[in-house]
Every structure is written in C-alpha cells, then in structure tokens.
Amino acid sequence: MTPTITRRGFLSTSVAAAGLVVLHPFSVRAQAGQAHLRIMETTDLHVHVWPYDYYADKPVDTVGLARTAALVGAVRAEATNSILLDNGDFLQGNPLGDYIAYERGMAQGEMHPIVTAMNTVGVEGGTLGNHEFNYGLTFLKNTLSGANFPIICCNVATVAGETADQDATLVPPYAVLERELTDGAGATHPIRIGLIGFVPPQIMQWDRKHLEGNVTARGMVEAAEAWVPKLKAEGVDLVIALAHTGIDPLPLEPDAENAALALAGVEGIDVVLTGHQHLVFPGPDYEGIEGADIQAGTLAGKPAVMAGFWGSHMGLIDLMLEREGDAWKIAGHTVEARPIFERKEDRSIVPLVESVVAVEDSVKAEHEATLDYIRRAVGKTTAPLYSYFALVADDPSVQIVTNAQTWYIAQMMEGTPNAGLPILSAGAPFKAGGRGGPEYYTDVPTGDIAIKNVADLYLYPNTIRAVKITGAEVKDWLERSAGMFNQITPGEADQILLNPDFPSYNFDVIDGVSYQIDLSQPSKFDSEGVLVDDGANRIVGLTFDGKPIDPAAEFIVATNNYRAGGGGTFPGNDGSTIVFEGPDTNRDIIVRYIVDQGTIDPAADGNWSFAPLNGATVLFDTGPKAADYLDQVKGLTIKAAGDGADGFARYRITL
C-alpha cells in the first residue's frame, strides 16, 4: 500500500489539544488537481535530542530535537500533506554522541539514540553529513542499520568507477519515495519523490584515518550531474537534494566544500535542503550573495532552506503542486526557517515551544547515562587547571587548549602540501575575571577530569581552523595581544597593569615560540586592533626552536574560526590565510585529546614572560581563590597586596 503523507506520523499532543490549527494558505486555496506539500528539514542535529547543555550540565531552551518535534507536529497540522527529511551531521557533536562512541559502543543490532529519536519523530529520509564519519565506517554502518528511513549519499564510493554514476557508493546514492497526495478536492493522487544526498568531499581530509583506503569522495556537482539524470529516469515527479553543504558564492572549485548554490543550478534538481554552515537561510546570513534570494527563499531560482543547527530551527518549504497529466509540477512556493526560541534585545531567551516528552522518553536511558558520563572522570590531569594568573603568566588553562589544538592540527596536516611546516597554537583565557566578577575563573584541581570541566576551559562552540602565516605576522599577532597591558614607566611603583578596555579573549598566547613582553614600550595596536604606533616593539626575544624567528619563515598556527576569520582584527587573520577549516569544535577536540591521552600534563611551559623593568612594580587584580595557586606561578615575582575593588584580590608584581 502506498503511504499517504497527509498529516502522517508524529503529531504534537500540545498542538492537537490546543485546537489552534491554522491551515497554510496553499492548503486553503488548493483546488482539484492542486496539492499543498510541506517539506520539513532538520539539519546539523549533532546528537542534540534533549534540550540540555551537557558541558554546562543544565537544561537549555535553545537546542534539541525533542523541542523541534513540537514544530514538526505544528507543521503537519497546518498542511494537507507533509514530509520530514534530515540533512546530515546527526551522529557526532555533543557528549551524548561521545558516550555512545567511547563508552557504550555501537555493536551490530544496537540502536543509536539519535536514530531512535529520529524514528520517533518520523523522519522519512536523510543524507550523510561529514560528522557521520568521525567514529569510523563500522560504527556508521551499525548506526544506519537502525534507521526506519533511507539514508543516501551519491558522492562517497567504496569502489570508484570511470564516472560518478558507475561508482559503488557507500550508501545508496538516491531513494524514491512513493507517496499519495491529497488535493484540494480531497482526491488522492500518487507522487514519486526522488531524494539524492551529498556530503563535502573534504571528509577525506577531516577523517583520513578512517577513510583513506576504504572510500573515495567526488565533488558534489560532478556527482549530481551524473546521478540526477538516473534518478529522473526513475519517473520521479520531484527531486529534492539533501545537500549537507553550505552556500558560498559562485564560481566554485570542483571540490568546493560549500556548493549548495552550484547544486541548485544542476538541471533536474527541484528543491535544495542545505546545512553544514550552522546558519539560517533564508535570512541575513546570506545577504548579498548573487543567486541566493533571501526574499524568495531560493538558490539559483530553486526553493531552498537551511535550518540552523542543534535543532534550533525547522526548515520549511511549502510547495503548491499542480497535476499535469500523470505528473506534478511546482506552481508556487514559500520558504521559512521556523525557530524554537526567540532571543530578546537584552539577550534573554524565550522558548517558543515545549519539549515533546515522547521524544525525550525514547532516549531517556541514554540521556541519563550521558549525565553520569560527563560527571565522572574520562582522564586525569597532573596539574591543576586554573586561570587566576592567565593574564600575567603562562597559564595551564590555556596550555591544555593549545596542546589539544596542536595535537589535532598535526594529524590534519599529514599528507597535505603544508605537511612539515612548524605548527604553533594560539589560545586565550575566556574566564579571567573582568566584568564576569571575582568568581569568573577556571578552577579544576589536579586529578580526575570530567567532560563537563571542558566547558570551563573553552566557553564557546568555536570550530577549529589553521592559518599559514610568516614569522613577521606571528610577531604582530603577539603585538596585538600585548595591547592587554598599559604602558609601564621604569622605576615607578604600583602602576595599574591591565587595560580595562581590552577583553581577555583577545589576549592570545602562542605556544611553540618563546618571547617576552616589554611593558615600557607603547602598544603597537589599540584595543580594537587598529595600528597606532608602527615603530612600537613590545614583543622582544621572539624565538622558534631556540633561534630568533625568521620573519620570512612560514608557520601553521592552530586557532579557531572566530580568530582566523578576522575576529578581533589580528594580523595574519583575515580569512585569506586559512589553510584548514575543520568541522570539529575546539571543545570537542579537547575532549578527544583527553580521552586519547588518558592522563594530560597541562603544566604551563613558561614560553612567555614580562621583560625586566628596573624599579617598576604593577598592580593586578584577580579572584580571591588565586591565593591557593600563588606558589605555582613560575617566572614572576608576585605577592599579595590586599583587596581590590568589587571583591577582587590585589597582587603586586615586581618587574
């Protein structure tokens, strides 16, 4: 029997009970031979089922398929016909995913909680995202076997043919869903919906250790041009591209990572579901890109949507279909990305839906096991991780971040044109007092370290990047960071050290080089990163491998997407120097590093310090608990100097 897609599957009890259903205008206007079809998209779920931040160990209103499920119910109630599709990156991205991968395992016949939840919500088709490969092909195969819906991808092959359509693909390249549509007169008609999936070919670099020698990946447009005609030959009425790729302007390289706009231009594709970039389309994120119409919600004239990330939105494409003989054509469309929360001007969060209990309950056991997992040790640290002195001395809370980034980028550079270049790593203290108050510091004692502690080490969901810059740019990067400090006069006592206008997250330490900061010099850059004194040289004694750094030498620097893309206006970071864009968050990399190492040694290596200034002392305020670690600060003459303002403790540093 052909399934009917009229309000089928999961329906939110709250929507039905409230009786507040308003049909979409297409459903109201449809006549005989016309049918309204709603295409719903989830994308980049990253294992977020419960509305819970496992790093912070608290419920939140901004994430979770259990909340997005309420939108699914509402959308189905508003339309005569609907279908729910997932656009990939569901398998990795939070501690629930890591718990399954590293702790419980994924044996053949077991169910993965994200697949259980997707089955519960009623997903009817999906594609692979790049993160599906993070835990290896056996893990992926065992996970996919539990899905009650086809999962497709046309550009990853176990055996490559002469052309893409001759490849033996890892999963089916496409799927045909046979459904029935109810038209405006109540009559039902068959429809054949073709789904075709795509993933960035960069998976071969990002997960080389799992994929090299096992699969190959083609450019997405090349694969589309080969496979779409075969899918059309199956007699489908509608081709929906499940494109786990973002939206970059044309023209693109053949193996481009963000090719949704180019895919929309492939003949035969009717609708594009996109993702990967964790943004929203249609919306201002893509304003000004030629071919991306944020008013009409189209890419190259085709209806398209990107639904944020972690369940933050439901992507929604409404089609008015008209019957032409035995086939259907698109006569009209509307597009939106419907959010699960609203952010007010004061940055407070207002939830727009309630979490659906049935979805939460479907993975409740795994959720509770994950809570146990994040709260118990996954490794050990041989030194305490604290940030009380991060702005005045090399610091263990930054050291662990830079160590983890170096470890990851070293793997990613293998086999690339940049293999062999020296790798440096940049990190900044996120929790270092300031406006956050005297308790706003990282403080993890020696011994067991749990996953939830990683939130203390790295506050933001930044993603990893690597830039290639010169030795001269390394120096200027550090000069920009040194704007953290006021200019200090030799011989004067008790001068205020920190520039109050300079945020701690812009105080980058670069590990892999050694240097001193001469506070008697003026700052080369102001607090906004504007060059104000080209002749200033606060960074002195800058060495690499024990020798003065060569200004012309090339270095790879591990950092994050914010910094590499120009955030903070740092020399060498304007987006043009990026040589590696990783899909992983810096937080996830720290967790992987801890799990891989078992025992970590984050003790600061003392690669930077202040240059001596005869007779000068400075005052520095930090949290009262800093006293517990005062004896561990190396290379700095520092003593307690009473109370600072607003509950801070004051210290005197002799330069």
UniProtKB/TrEMBL annotation:
One cellular component term from this protein's GO annotations in UniProt: outer membrane-bounded periplasmic space
Keyword Transcription regulation carried by entry: no
Leader sequence segment: 1-30
GO biological process: nucleotide catabolic process
Keyword terms: Hydrolase, Metal-binding, Nucleotide-binding, Signal
Nucleus in keyword set: no
Domain Calcineurin-like phosphoesterase: 37-278
Family note: Belongs to the 5'-nucleotidase family.
Protein name: Bifunctional 2',3'-cyclic-nucleotide 2'-phosphodiesterase/3'-nucleotidase
Source organism per UniProt: Paracoccus zhejiangensis
Top-level taxonomy: Bacteria, Pseudomonadati, Pseudomonadota, Alphaproteobacteria, Rhodobacterales
